[in-house]
Write a structure and sequence with these properties.
Blueprint: E1 5-9, E2 12-20, E3 26-30, E4 37-40, E5 45-53, E6 59-61, E7 64-70, E8 73-74, E9 79-90, E10 95-105, E11 112-113, E12 121-126
Antiparallel strand pairs: 1-2, 1-5, 2-3, 3-4, 5-6, 7-8, 7-9, 7-12, 9-10, 10-11
Length: 136
């Protein structure tokens, strides 16, 4: 079963086994080799699993950068997966409305709800390990 979250800690991505919100707040993580490690929640960056997979079957998390594959062509658009409030156009009401959930941001494009990514998207990095991409 795929974890609901992953955590970035000490320059490495970890699988989250459990989050304990009691005092002290800790996240229990593993790298698949180490049995488990208890880490204060304030020391990790948590990324929520979208429940969707890319074209190679990799789960897509909040904070992932994806690229769009259109057949044999790769579009030169860097897209960032986010979770939170975003605006989406409602054709019935003919206006933009606030929504909450996973969405995509890309420079020069409106925010888009997360669609069927397994048909076109490929994870190519994430904001923790590729923070310089945010400037693109």
């Amino acid at each position: 079963m795929q974890s609901e979250y992953r955590a970035f800690w000490k320059n490495k991505m970890w699988e989250v086994m459990q989050i304990d919100y009691r005092i002290p707040q800790t996240v229990i993580i593993t790298d698949g080799i180490t049995d488990h490690i208890n880490v204060p929640l304030t020391e990790v960056v948590l990324m929520k699993n979208s429940g969707k997979q890319d074209i190679s079957g990799e789960f897509i998390y909040e904070g992932d950068f994806i690229e769009s594959h259109q057949g044999t062509r790769i579009l030169d658009i860097l897209m960032l997966v986010k979770y939170g409030t975003y605006e989406a156009y409602c054709p019935i009401d003919k206006e933009y409305m606030d929504n909450v959930g996973f969405f995509i941001e890309a420079a020069g494009y409106p925010q888009m709800p997360l669609g069927p990514l397994s048909e076109y998207a490929k994870v190519i990095g994430n904001v923790c390990e590729n923070s310089d991409w945010l400037d693109k």
